[in-house]
Amino acid sequence: MEVYNSIFEFFGHLCHQKPERSFFIKNKQLPVCARCTGILLGFLLSYSMGFFIRFYKTYWIFILFIPMVLDGCVQKFTNYYSNNNRRLVTGFLFGFTYGYVCNMINLI
């Protein structure tokens, strides 16, 4: 339980951790919300792919940033309420793109 609390506290600096926007496994809240889960999964997949394939400098990939930005902004400024599955997918696209860009420019 101490490890879970430490992990939860660490990710609390990166994510709001709202329970209604988070996934649960066996009644335990994941330490990041659905959107941050998607971002982390997308980034890890894309970045790890960089060890096996070459990422070409293509700027159309930036289009994949748009869904998360739109989902977040529309929810922030209207009565629209996104769901966790949509947050996961848009976060994944954002994270995948971020990892792609990092590989593309050899950032990390």
Number of domains: 1
Number of helices: 4
Please summarize the sheet with the most strands: 2 strands, antiparallel
Strand order of the largest sheet: 1-2
Any idea what the shape is? flat
Count of β-strands: 2
Rg over CA atoms, rounded to whole Å, is 15 Å
What do you see in this structure?
It is a single chain. The chain has four helices and two strands, in the order H-E-E-H-H-H. It is mainly alpha-helical. It has one domain. A two-stranded antiparallel sheet has the order 1-2. Strand 1 and strand 2 form a beta hairpin. The protein is flat, with a radius of gyration of 15 Å.
Please write out the topology.
Elements: H1 2-11, E1 22-25, E2 28-33, H2 34-49, H3 66-77, H4 84-104
Antiparallel strand pairs: 1-2
Q: Can you summarize this structure?
A:
The protein has 4 helices and 2 strands; from the N terminus they run αββααα.
